[in-house]
Amino acid sequence: MKEKIFILLPDGLGLRNFGYTDFYKKAADKNFEIIFWNITPFPLADMGYPELKISNAKIHPLTDIYKKAKVQVEFNLNIKRTKDKIYNRYRFPFSYSTIKNATKSILVNSVTFTHSTKWGLLRIRRKINENERKTHYYHQSLATLEKEKPAMVFCTNQRHITTVAPLLAAKDLGIPTATFIFSWDNLPKATMVVETDYYFVWSDYMKEELLFYYTYIKPEQIVVTGSPQFETHFDKNNLLTKEAFFMQNDLDLAKKYVCFSGNDETSSPDDPKYLEDIAKAVKKLNEQGNNLGVIFRRSPVDFSGRFDFIKEKYKEEVTFIEPLWKSLSTAWDSILPTIEDNVLFSNLAEHTELVLTIGSSTVFDFIAHNKPTAYLKYNQQEQLNVKWDIYKCYGFVHFRSMPSQEVVFWINNPEEMATAILNAMSKNEKILRQAGKWFEKINQNPPQLASERIWNAIDKIIKN
After folding, report:
1. Which of the listed CATH numbers 2.60.120.10, 3.40.50.2000, 3.20.10.10, 3.20.20.100 matches domain 3-59+135-227+447-463?
2. Which of 6, 15, 416, 455 has the CB geometry, 3.0–4.6 Å to 150, for a possible disulfide?
3. Tens of pLDDT along 381-413?
């Protein structure tokens, strides 16, 4: 008899990591039955995935207040512990634009002010759980679990408040629970919303972070597995020949291409100007006898027209290859990644010379294909948002994991762009070695065995 595992899915990125990778494929090999316990608007059954839909994931009216206060209190305590004000940079500004928003902001600030101690934080955590146990959502989750009797509930993301009630229900029924720490930068940002029996992390480095930021978690609760998101890069069946990829995307076989990987409008408002700087550099290099092109991959959640002028002004230099995500609405959390995009991105990394980006984890995707990264590190002279500062980006805690500054090429002004591109295409062996060391530090090696390690851990947890 197959053991039934509930995969609690609060967003589409969890589907990318646990539906489109070896994780899903290996379930049958390990004699497990996967059921996606689906909070998202995505019609997984229509896509061929077994699902139980959660149709009314309504949290307690006060839970969001306590959750937001919890984040602020964690920042306050981290600053007090470390004497490091970097955590202030993770705060989002409060909104007072409407009576409702102003009321919520005042309440969050009030709870934060009265609970900014170790014991205050504990009271907030208990209050979230206490309130969620009062909801219809919690009792609905209890009924589902009592009927289905899964052997484990595995949450694909630690940061969604809508996952608290079903995880509490599972724990109250004695069903083992686990969550996956979604991204390499999440733990310093106070994104831990759920409390589970086990925590699956990318690396020993992330394990130490988890123990540092959440002292109530014990080492034996943490499982180091790596992230399945990188597995696609190591599946040779996904890779097209260069000729096929170039033909599919209307690229010139005589050219060598560099990739610019964009961010969303909030994270990087000046992305169009950076893309223009790259296009200008490539145009200059081609005038000097090179034959280069730029492939632009925008953020999958960026549907703005802010790059339209590039298409007209630099159509000889820049080719747009759009991410193959599906939008169910204009909301960012209703945009569905696809298997096809995983394959597209893997081929993009395989068949370009390097990636240029601003602080992105694409450095790890490209080093998986032995390709270097160039990080842009200068502000535009005329900024769309004068409060945005690229230097703050590289000051974030997760960049302290770099084994050295030579893991990427740094471009400190537009004048360095052309030289940096040429160097990255030729003098890159040292950079590649250092980037490889960074990848091994951030993500358990070998990266292609992440799903195998996760299933082995789940099997052991259930048997124990």
Report:
1. 3.40.50.2000
2. 6
3. 988 888 889 999 999 999 999 999 999 999 999
Contacts (Cβ under 8 Å, ≥6 apart) of 236:
none
DSSP annotation of 464: -
- As a three-state string, the secondary structure of 224-253 is ECCCHHHHHHHCHHHCCCHHHHHHHCCCCC
Do residues 127 and 66 touch, judged by C-beta distance below 8 A?
yes
Kindly state which CATH superfamily the domain 232-442 is placed in. Answer: Glycogen Phosphorylase B; (3.40.50.2000)
In Å, how far are 48, 141, 150, 153, 173 from 144, measured between CA atoms?
A: 21, 5, 10, 12, 11
pLDDT tens-place string over residues 62-90: 999 999 999 999 999 999 999 999 999 99
CA distances from 214 to 204, 431, 437 (A): 15, 34, 27
Q: Which helix (H) or strand (E) holds 177?
A: strand 177-180
Separation of alpha carbons 32 and 147, rounded Å: 18
* Start-end of H helices in 116-189: 118-132, 136-148, 164-172
